[in-house]
Write a structure and sequence with these properties.
The chain is an alpha+beta fold and 640 residues long. 20% of the residues lie in helices and 21% in strands. The protein is built from 12 helices and 22 strands. It has helices spanning 30-43, 93-108, 113-121, 132-135, 258-269, 302-309, 312-315, 361-378, 393-399, 462-475, 512-528, 565-569, and strands spanning 14-16, 20-22, 48-55, 61-67, 80-85, 123-127, 177-181, 187-189, 197-199, 210-214, 273-279, 405-408, 480-488, 492-499, 533-544, 547-556, 576-580, 587-590, 594-597, 605-614, 620-627, 631-638. Strands 3-4-6-5-11-12 form a 6-stranded mixed sheet, with helices on both faces. A hairpin with a 5-residue loop joins β3 and β4. The radius of gyration is 27 Å and the shape is elongated. The structure holds calcium ion (4 copies). Residues 164-167, 216-217, 219, 226 line the site of one calcium ion.
Length: 640
C-alpha cells in the first residue's frame, strides 16, 4: 500500500531532503524506501553509495548505505558510525529515521560545516531496514505487528511449522487479543481502567475471571490457540552477547539469519566502526544505566504478555526450562529467574565463566554523557516500551566489538514541562568527562503526556499499559481497539480488543520529520565525539656524528578515548600504532621503531615518544600514527 504523499488539500508543504515535496513523511514500504534511497544516493554519487548485503527469504535486499566524502583519508581508515534500524520487524520508525539521516547528511553537506566535517573526516554506515520482510507486514491487509523474520520455525516442536497463526476474526484488519470469561481465569479487569486487564492479586482481594489469548482459532486442534504463527527469528535476539539459547525466536544458533549474518559480516570487515547507534526495542539512552553499569529494567505491555503466556506451555515441549515468549505483537521477556542457561557445561557440570553484562565503570560516564545529551536535545524522557537486551546487536557491539553502542526506539512520550529526567544526576562523579554539546535543536517533538513517573524502564506490568493508554487518549492516537463481543467457534462468547499492532512501537507519522531531524543531528553529534589521533608536536635534535633524537607528542584531540576500557579488556579494539619510518637497525635507543599503546584518553591527552636514530643530515623520515577507532595522522620529519 502506497501511503498518501501529496497533500490533496491546501496545507503547509514542507521541502524535504531528497528533493521531494510532500505534505508529510509517511511510513515507507520496502519499495518506497528502496526508491528513496536510490534517489538520494544517485543524486550524490561522490558522497554516498549503496549496496545489498543479502537477500531475505522473500527476496528483498538488505541495504547498506555508506555516506562519506571519499576524497582524502581512505574511508576504511576513518572512524565510522554504524546506524542500524528495524532490527525488530515491528520497529519501522527507526527505518524512517535512518532514511532521514542519510538524506540529511547528503542535503546539508554543502552548506553545514558540522555535517561537512562529519563526512570529510568520518564515515556513516546505515542499515536502514535490516528486517524488510517483517517490516512489510506493517502494510499488509491484516496487521499483526510481527517482530520476527519469515524463516519458518516450529515453535511448539510438534513437527509442523507455522501451522497455527492468528486470525483476524472480527475483520478489522488487526490482530489483537481476545478476553474470555472463565471462572478459573487469572486476569481481571484493571481497577483503574476498564479497557485494561490485570493479573489478579489474591492478596489484594482482587479476583480474576478472564483468560486472554491472541485473536484467532486453534487451527491444528492441539488445545493451544495460535501457538505457531508464521516466522521466524527475532534478529535482535540473534547476536552473540548473552544469546538466549533455546528461545525459538532467537533462531537455531547465533547469527543464523541472512539478515543478521549480513550485518555481522559487515561489522567484522569494518573494524573502523567506532560507534553503533541501533534503532530497536531496547533502550540505553533514555534510561541511564544504573551506577554499577546495568541497563534499566525492561518495560513491557501486560496485555500482550498475558496473551503470550497462553501459548507458553505449547512452546515448552522439548525445552529444558520454563520460558515465555512473545512472537507477534511480542513484548515478551524473561522474568527474573527464568533465564536459560547457556550450553557448554563440562563433564563436571560447570559452565564457562558467565559473560560480562555491566558496562565497565571507566566507560560509564561516556555512556551517561551521551544519554544526557540525547534526552536534553530530543526531549524524550520516557519511552513507550523497552525489552530485555539479551542477544541484541547493540550489546554485542559494546561487549564483544568493544565500541560505544546505543539503542533507542527513536521516539518517546515527551514531557515538555517536566525537565530533564536524569536518573543518574545524583551520582555524578566529580571527574566525569567534560560534556560536549550539540548545536541547539531547532525542532522538538513538543508533544507528550503528563509524565507518570520520572525516567523510563518502569518495570512493566499493568502500570505500563495504563500509562500508554492515557498517553494515547491525550494525544488522540487511535491505538486501542475497544472490546467488542464475538461468537468464537470453540470458546463461545468472547470479546476482541486491545492495543493495535504497531501503535506501541511506532509514533504517528506526523512526528517522523521532527524525529528524523533530531536523530540525524544526534548522529552527526556522535561522530563529533570520536577519538582523533594526531601528531601534535615533533622535535629533532642533532647530536652530531650522524645521530639524531626525534621526539614526538601524540595527542587524542577527540572526546572519546581511542579505545574504551572494555574494548581493551575484551581485546576487541586494536592498540594504536606509532611508527617511525626508518630501518629498524637505525634505531639506537629510545622507543621502538613501531610502538603500540592500548588506549589514550580524549580531550587532548598526550603520549610522548623519543627515538635516538642514526641518519643523514637532510634525510626525510615519515612518522605515522594509526588508530583503529581514532583515525590516522602522519608527519614528515627532516633531520637537521
Ligand atoms: Ca509447530
Ligand atoms: Ca481483529
Ligand atoms: Ca494450535
Ligand atoms: Ca490460529
Amino acid at each position: 500500500m502506497r501511503l498518501l504523499q501529496i497533500a490533496s488539500t491546501a496545507g503547509v508543504l514542507l521541502f524535504l531532503p531528497g528533493s521531494q515535496t510532500r505534505a508529510q513523511r509517511q511510513y515507507s514500504s520496502y519499495n518506497d524506501m528502496t526508491a528513496a534511497l536510490r534517489r538520494v544516493v544517485r543524486a550524490n554519487p561522490e558522497l554516498s553509495r549503496m549496496e545489498t548485503l543479502g537477500k531475505t527469504l522473500e527476496g528483498r535486499d538488505v541495504w547498506l548505505v555508506e555516506v562519506a566524502n571519499r576524497s582524502g583519508t581512505p574511508v576504511e581508515e576513518r572512524p565510522g558510525l554504524l546506524v542500524v534500524a528495524n532490527l525488530e520487524g515491528d520497529q519501522v520508525v527507526g527505518s524512517e529515521i535512518a532514511l532521514y539521516t542519510v538524506e540529511y547528511l547528503l542535503t546539508n553537506y554543502p552548506a553545514d560545516s558540522v555535517v561537512k566535517d562529519c563526512l570529510d573526516n568520518h564515515v556513516v554506515y546505515v542499515f536502514p531496514r535490516l528486517n524488510p520482510d517483517a517490516a512489510e507486514l506493517m502494510f499488509a491487509d491484516v496487521r499483526s505487528g510481527r517482530r520476527t523474520n519469515t524463516r519458518p520455525y516450529d515453535d511448539d516442536n510438534d513437527g509442523r511449522t507455522d501451522e497455527d497463526g492468528p486470525e483476524d476474526l472480527n475483520g478489522d484488519g488487526l490482530i489483537t487479543v481476545m478476553r474470555v470469561a472463565d471462572p478459573s481465569g487469572a486476569y481481571g479487569v484493571h481497577p483503574d481502567e476498564s479497557r485494561l486487564m490485570k493479573l489478579a492479586e489474591a492478596a489484594k482481594g482482587e479476583s480474576g475471571g478472564y483468560e486472554i489469548y491472541w485473536e484467532g482459532v486453534d487451527n491444528d486442534g492441539d488445545g493451544f490457540i495460535n501457538e505457531d504463527p508464521a516466522g521466524g527469528v527475532d534478529l535482535n535476539r540473534n547476536f552473540q552477547h548473552e544469546y538466549p539459547y533455546y528461545e525459538p525466536d532467537a533462531g537455531p544458533h547465533m547469527v543464523s539469519e541472512v539478515e543478521s549474518r549480513a550485518l555481522m559480516d559487515f561489522v567484522i570487515a569494518h573494524r573502523n566502526i567506532a560507534m553503533v547507534l541501533a534503532y530497536g526495542a531496547s533502550d540505553n539512552l533514555v534510561a541511564a544505566p544504573t551506577p554499577n553499569g546495568a541497563l534499566a529494567e525492561a518495560s513491557t505491555v501486560a496485555l500482550l504478555d498475558y496473551a503470550a503466556r497462553s501459548v507458553a506451555d505449547a512452546a515448552e515441549v522439548g525445552m529444558f526450562q520454563v520460558r515465555q515468549t512473545g512472537r507477534f505483537g511480542g513484548f515478551g521477556m524473561f522474568p527474573p529467574g527464568q533465564q536459560q542457561q547457556r550450553p557448554g557445561a563440562d563433564a563436571r557440570g560447570q559452565t564457562p565463566q558467565p559473560p560480562v553484562t555491566t558496562i565497565n565503570s571507566a566507560d560509564l560516564e561516556y555512556v551517561n554523557v551521551i544519554g544526557r545529551e540525547y534526552r536534553e536535545v530530543t526531549g524524550i524522557n520516557q519511552v513507550a516500551t523497552t525489552r530485555s537486551p539479551r542477544g541484541a546487536f547493540f550489546q554485542y557491539a559494546y561487549f564483544q566489538f568493544g565500541v560505544p553502542a546505543f539503542s533507542t526506539s527513536g521516539w518517546g512520550l515527551a514531557d515538555p514541562g517536566g525537565g530533564d529526567a536524569e536518573p543518574d544526576s545524583a551520582a555524578q562523579p566529580p571527574e566525569r568527562p567534560a560534556r560536549p554539546r550539540m548545536a541547539p535543536a531547532t525542532a522538538a517533538p513538543g508533544r507528550g503526556m503528563p509524565r507518570a513517573r520520572a525516567g523510563a524502564g518502569t518495570g512493566g506490568g499493568a502500570s505500563t499499559d495504563l500509562r500508554l493508554l492515557r498517553w494515547m487518549d491525550a494525544e488522540g492516537i487511535d491505538g486501542f481497539v475497544d472490546w467488542t463481543e464475538y461468537q468464537h467457534p470453540t470458546l463461545g462468547s468472547v470479546e476482541i480488543g486491545g492495543f493495535s499492532p504497531y501503535a506501541l512501537t511506532n509514533p504517528p507519522a506526523s512526528m517522523l520529520d521532527s524525529l528524523g531531524e533530531l536523530h540525524a543531528k544526534f548522529a552527526v553529534y556522535l561522530t563529533s565525539l570520536f577519538a582523533r589521533v594526531r601528531i601534535a608536536d615533533v622535535r629533532v635534535t642533532n647530536h652530531g656524528g650522524g645521530v639524531f633524537e626525534v621526539e614526538a607528542e601524540i595527542e587524542n584531540s577527540g572526546f572519546l578515548p581511542t579505545a574504551l576500557a572494555h574494548g581493551v579488556r575484551a581485546r576487541a579494539v586494536a592498540p594504536t600504532m606509532v611508527q617511525l619510518g626508518v630501518p629498524p637497525e637505525d634505531v639506537v635507543t629510545g622507543d621502538a621503531k613501531t610502538s603500540f599503546f592500548p588506549t589514550l584518553e580524549g580531550s587532548g591527552a598526550r603520549r610522548s615518544y623519543s627515538w635516538v636514530i642514526r641518519g643523514v643530515q637532510g634525510a626525510r623520515i615519515e612518522l605515522r600514527v594509526r588508530s583503529q577507532k581514532g583515525g590516522m595522522d602522519s608527519a614528515t620529519i627532516t633531520l637537521r
